[in-house]
Each structure stands twice: as C-alpha cells, then as structure tokens.
Amino acid sequence: MAVVKVIEIMAESEKSWEDATKVALKAASKSVKNIKAIYINDMQAIVENDEIVRYRVNAKISFLVE
To answer: What is the pLDDT of residue 55?
Structure first.
C-alpha cells in the first residue's frame, strides 16, 4: 500500500500564475522526492497603479512516502 503526503507551498512570480506554479514545484523538489501531483488551491494577483505586478499561488504538492 502506498502512502501519499501533501504539503502546502505559497509561491510568487512576476510573469503569471503558471510561472508561480513552476516556482512552487521547483522549490519543493529541492527537498522532496517522488512528487506526483500539484493542486492549486488558491490564486491571487497583487495590483499596483492599476496593473498586476505579481501573481501568487497556494499549491498543495502530493508525493509518495518511501
């Protein structure tokens, strides 16, 4: 039987929500192995002077526990 653990990571990008998701995955993969899925729980955009300046995601990352 496999055991899956889920961690939550918040990440940010100046480009897009997709890029923020990639940032979250890259950060998690530095210390977590066997990542199987990433679920975006929440998205937020930071606005300054009527322009979006940063994109943020709250990601849940699932991985197998050995």
So the answer is: 98
CA distance 54 to 56: 7
Over residues 20-45, the pLDDT tens digits come to 999 999 999 999 999 999 999 999 99
DSSP state of 30: T
| Strand stretches in the chain, DSSP E | 3-13, 35-48, 51-65
Q: Output DSSP code: residue 14.
A: S
Q: Which two tokens stand for residue 36?
A: 């199987």
Sign of CA dihedral 33, 39, 42, 43: positive
> What tokens appear for 2 in the block?
């496999």
6 membership: H or E segment, kind and range: strand 3-13
